[in-house]
Design brief:
With about 90 residues, this protein is mainly β. It has a domain of about 25 residues. It is about 0% helix and about 30% strand. It has no helices and 4 strands. It has a 4-stranded antiparallel sheet with strand order 3-2-1-4, with no helix packed on it. A hairpin with a 6-residue loop joins strand 2 and strand 3.
Length: about 90
């Protein structure tokens, strides 16, 4: 097993719709203890629905092309903004 896992919440507009493809929102990370008998969990956000998904981190090059389970798209950075794009 990996010594580090990323934590996600799958967000859907209608949680009861089994056919809806949700998007994956990273909410934290967990690290295995050195003795292998436990995990330390760091959450940046709390899931409203109470469900967390733990996944082995993907290499940075794979974030743009890999599809996650349940149809969520891989992670990609938003396009860079110029100073002209700032709304204030």
């Amino acid at each position: 097993m990996a010594n580090r896992m990323e934590l996600f919440v799958v967000v859907k507009k209608d949680p009861d719709d089994q056919n809806e493809k949700g998007f994956w929102n990273k909410v934290g990370i967990m690290f295995e203890h050195k003795d292998g008998k436990g995990w330390s969990i760091h959450l940046d956000a709390l899931p409203v629905n109470g469900d967390l998904v733990a996944r082995v981190p993907m290499p940075k090059d794979d974030h743009k092309k890999e599809t996650l389970p349940s149809g969520g798209e891989g992670f990609s950075a938003p396009p860079p903004m110029s100073d002209d794009d700032v709304p204030f």
